[in-house]
Specification:
single chain, mainly beta, ten-stranded antiparallel beta sheet, two-stranded antiparallel sheet, globular
Length: about 230
């Protein structure tokens, strides 16, 4: 394989989000970090605080596992930072999934710890996996190592075009420790990342990674940072 063929095998589509930069409308369909803007009446325990509103219905790319979901709202228990070594952090998140936008109303539940901003979606087609992750098949790893040795290239310099370390739907986790994988039953579907504008830092510019089993409607949440 050559570099072009490796890119074709590795690259995935994703929707990334740019924070702010335009006048918000707060209309139905606008995603946010730092607030839950739309939803239905949910029984939210007091330790959970609004994290984000992500509308999927008009995004340029959504992974197959989320195709039947039109809106995701997330509340987070900030005590999660005391439990980052847990195998699954899903119990520290309330993830509400709506398959219809009918009968939604404006909640405008805003975080006291973050500065809310609207999120502008953008399609990318070249999201690449981190080298030391479990997202590159072993036979492709061998091929990359062969080309690096024979042609004196570097994975990050000559194959990777970009790794997107921001809020993202689809694609790859931007950074996870070697050995972290939940198998085909729980594919990666999105990440919520540290965001300077929103004054939201996950330990050291890290992210929360969300893996979803569509059949069981179960989540695994993992955290990692640089």
């Amino acid at each position: 394989m050559n570099i072009a063929q490796l890119k074709e095998v590795l690259f995935k589509q994703a929707t990334i989000f740019e924070t702010g930069g335009y006048r918000p409308t707060e209309e139905l369909g606008e995603s946010w970090i730092g607030k839950v803007l739309w939803g239905k009446e949910e029984n939210i325990p007091s330790q959970f605080e609004p994290l984000c509103t992500i509308f999927l219905n008009e995004l340029p790319y959504v992974p197959e596992e989320l195709k039947n979901i039109q809106l995701i709202t997330i509340y987070m228990d900030f005590s999660v930072y005391n439990h980052l070594n847990n195998d699954n952090l899903a119990s520290f998140f309330m993830i509400n999934c709506y398959t219809s936008l009918n009968e939604l109303h404006k909640i405008n539940d805003q975080s006291a710890r973050m500065k809310p901003f609207p999120l502008k979606p953008k399609l990318v087609e070249n999201d690449a996996p981190a080298w030391d992750s479990e997202d590159i098949p072993p036979e492709i790893v061998d091929e990359i190592l062969r080309i690096e040795l024979e042609d004196a290239i570097e994975y990050y310099d000559d194959i990777v075009e970009d790794i997107y370390p921001m809020h993202k739907i689809g694609g790859y986790p931007s950074y996870t420790q070697s050995g972290v994988s939940y198998g085909d039953e729980y594919p990666f579907v999105f990440q919520i990342s540290s965001d300077a504008k929103a004054q939201f830092n996950i330990v050291d510019s890290g992210s929360f990674y969300f893996f979803y089993n569509q059949d069981k409607q179960e989540w695994i949440v993992y955290c990692d940072f640089y």
